[in-house]
Amino acid sequence: MNPVPSSGGNKVNWINYHTGVREVYFRMNADGHEVSIAITLEHREAAMQELYFEQFTELKTLLHTELQEEWVWQLHDKSDPDRMISRIYKTLPNVSVYNKSHWPDLISFLKPRIIALDRFWENAKYRFEGL
Fold first, then answer.
1. pLDDT 10s digits, 103-116
2. Which phi and psi (to 5°) does residue 72 adopt?
3. What is the pTM of this model?
4. Count of C-beta atoms within a 10 Å radius of residue 13
5. 128 and 82 in contact (C-beta within 8 Å)?
6. Hey, where are the domains in the chain?
7. CA–CA separation, 101 and 111 (whole Å)
8. Phi, psi of 30 (to 5 degrees)
9. CB-based contact 76:64 (threshold 8 Å)
10. First vs last C-alpha separation in the chain
11. 115 vs 67: CA distance, rounded Å
């Protein structure tokens, strides 16, 4: 995805997208069962994580408009026993990164969504400064 510049016209590492907000990450994951893309809120303090989540909730319409679809919103996911995160995410089930015939589906799923997240973030990141 290197040839695609960010919405601000800058070079961007799409796999390791830098939001500029320490506890906010855009994550893409592909394994043997599904592919997912997510906004993860990883602040150690539950109250701060909730504050970040509330800020995203206020921007929900803008996010879904940019993505052209609705995503799943999950506050305080405790599926990992070592830490708690909050996620806003979308998954594509029944695809495997290990199956080359699925790669076009993986790319078609991830590429437009990470580009849409970049466009969203270009307008939304200012809400998170100073939190």
1. 999 999 999 999 99
2. -85, 135
3. 0.87
4. 10
5. no
6. 24-128
7. 17
8. -135, 135
9. no
10. 31
11. 9
